[in-house]
Amino acid sequence: MGKTTLALEVGEQRPSIYLDLESDADRAKLAEPELYLTGHEDKLVILDEVRRVPDLFQNLRGLIDRGRRKGLRSGRFLLLGSASMDLLKQSGESLAGRIAYLELAPIDGFEVEAGELNRLWVRGGFPDSLLAANDTVSQRWRIDFIRTYLERDIPLLGPGIPAETLRRFWTMLAHHQSGLLKHISVLCTPPKIQKRIERHRKMPGTSMPWRIFHCDHQKISVRSGIPIASRMTAKKGKPLSQA
Length: 243
Prior knowledge:
It is a single chain. The protein is mostly helical. It has eleven helices and three strands. Helix 8 (135-157) crosses helix 9. The chain is globular.
């Protein structure tokens, strides 16, 4: 969130060029990427929506290695874009040891006044939604955002899940907000989504707007209030009253 604005502010502090790879004109500049980027090796090159040109990573690898031999160690390229699984895998394989990741999250509770926490909880951390004139405008923005994200952005990231199916799954997750997500709760979801959950769990920092936190907890017996593991141990040994 706000990655382009932040990148442009960084670019103002040093010589830089900015390429929006959703623009046909900017993508055309990279028809011969090594020739073009070598001509700007003295600048910070900001590549926005880099997922539009996935083959670029192989070129970047050679440019980075040649630059290192010239003493240009780091800070040459700033890559922006949603972190799809395929993109993370490709960048990790092509640029291993040459790239660092930074995930930008929405506004959180540490960035607002105490009296604004309820509004943050309801409206979410995207600035246009949080700072909207009223709740109606905020809700309208969120509905439009979700629709655009599901229908346009998600297909570009390659999970292969229909937008309506994913929207229903998001609704289910919303009802489990800050709670334990039992495996039985997701058995009713299509196999593709179940596989996606598992893949997401193994690869943090993806584009999906949910996070799964693993916690350690004991299963408590409803009748006795004693951890089940303790009751089982007691039954195999001494009676519970003597244990």
